From TrEMBL:
It comes from Nitrospira moscoviensis. One of its GO terms (biological process) is malonyl-CoA biosynthetic process. GO terms for molecular function: ATP binding; metal ion binding; pyruvate carboxylase activity. Residues 139-336 form the ATP-grasp domain. NCBIfam families: accC (TIGR00514), PRK08591.1 (NF006367). This is Pyruvate carboxylase, subunit A. Keywords: ATP-binding, Biotin, Ligase, Magnesium, Nucleotide-binding, Pyruvate. Its EC number is 6.4.1.1. Pfam families: Biotin_carb_C, Biotin_carb_N, CPSase_L_D2. InterPro entries: ACC_Biotin_Carboxylase, Acetyl_CoA_COase_biotin_COase, ATP-grasp, BC-like_N, Biotin_carboxylation_dom, Biotin_COase_C, CPAse_ATP-bd, PreATP-grasp_dom_sf. Signal peptide: none annotated. Residues 21-465 form the Biotin carboxylation domain. The keyword Nucleotide-binding applies.
Amino acid sequence: LLFHRPAPEGRVRTVESRRDMFKKILVANRGEIAMRIIRACRELNIATAAIYSEADSTGIYVKKADEAYQVGPGPVKGFLDSRQIVDLAVRIGADAIHPGYGFLSENAEFAELCQTAGITFIGPSPHAITLMGSKVKARELAKQVGVPIVPGTEGGVADVKDGLAFARQAGYPVIIKASAGGGGRGLRVVRSDAELRENMEAAAREAQASFGDGSVFIEKYIERPHHIEFQILADRHGHIIHLGERDCSIQRRHQKLIEIAPSLILTPKLRDTMGEAAITIARAVQYDNAGTVEFLLDQDGRFYFIEMNPRLQVEHTVTEQITAIDIVRHQISIAAGKPLDIRQHDVTLQGHAIQCRINAEDPKNNFMPCTGTVTAYLSPGGIGVRIDGAVYKDYTVPPYYDALLAKLTVRGRTWEETVSRMRRSLEEYVLRGVKTTIPFMKAIMQDPDFLAGRFDTSYLDTHPDLYH
Ligand code: ADP
């Protein structure tokens, strides 16, 4: 810890007298999500402390937090060093830590370490994190409580023979999954005995190396499903609600690129059924705080639970835009022990929202991550436009982190209006000096299939002209 930048003088603080809310939150993350959390804290009059690496010291969140502390060593380790972060929180008098997404957000030991040090972890219990960190365990739980899961192996498969037996019985293609995998990593689709043999051991080895857990399992590969996920809010008093769904089917290599809310294909009845299933799963782990229950919806309208993410998600913005509910604000108040002030019937979905991930990547070159200095920056504005960004003119994109520069979210009354608003916003966006996904997103907004709502998880594979 090398530097400490004190809070700017003269800022009005009214929190000292409030006992039921945190006074200072340490934001254990960087980039756009650190900004998002700082914004929520500012509205709640909670002081913020940022952490940053030397490589990231020009990050905008470092300037916007009330205090900022350099952690290390190197660009990444400081963001992953539980002990260093908890010690810092104690030293600076923070009473809670928000982990954002990625980094330590799904690390049960970190959540426990916070607890032991008397710091509130803004997220679910270590128990829920551990359980949901294992896809195998999460599947077992879903099955126990009667929520449909994708047909697959019972538990992990250690032996290729067992894998082959399942695949032959279920029929190819199947997908090999790392139990501890996430972010689209640790998935392998295989279409024959030979491919399964080839991939199973490699998958286990890779899972061990990447996630510290070599267990893999196999699911039937569902052709052309929609990825539908439900946003959950649960307090510490047993109230659980959902905020409707997001359709995150526009993916590249199983990673989300565009997210929309609500889904264009769910009927109100199916929404209720899937929402109830999501709540059932959350209840089964005595979940509290914000979380997301993910499903696949097949071409015949059948849904299957795939996993639950026990954290804030990148795409939470689209839900906020159609519900007018601030998810981060609720995360904070739930962690402070307050009961939910919204009931299920208070949640209404209004209009449509789309989020495009503006990544520093070259769509024409296999989405290769790009670095560089932003030489001109002007974000779009006007009705229904929201930017969650971490980028400004003269900002140099560091090569060490994910490529997400900004999230552009728009909302509109109808789907057509929302798509045209997104196209207009992308056209307005000036971001020079680094290659970004903006041109690619623009092409999608003009694609007749997208406009007609004809897309599922196969969309990018079936529309290669959009990025070649
Ligand atoms: P991760 O935790 O890495 O995000 P998920 O299990 O959530 O992995 O799956 C990510 C994506 O992979 C899904 O949104 C979907 O597109 C695809 N996928 C996962 N499981 C299946 C399956 N059984 N059949 C078809 N596609 C799948």
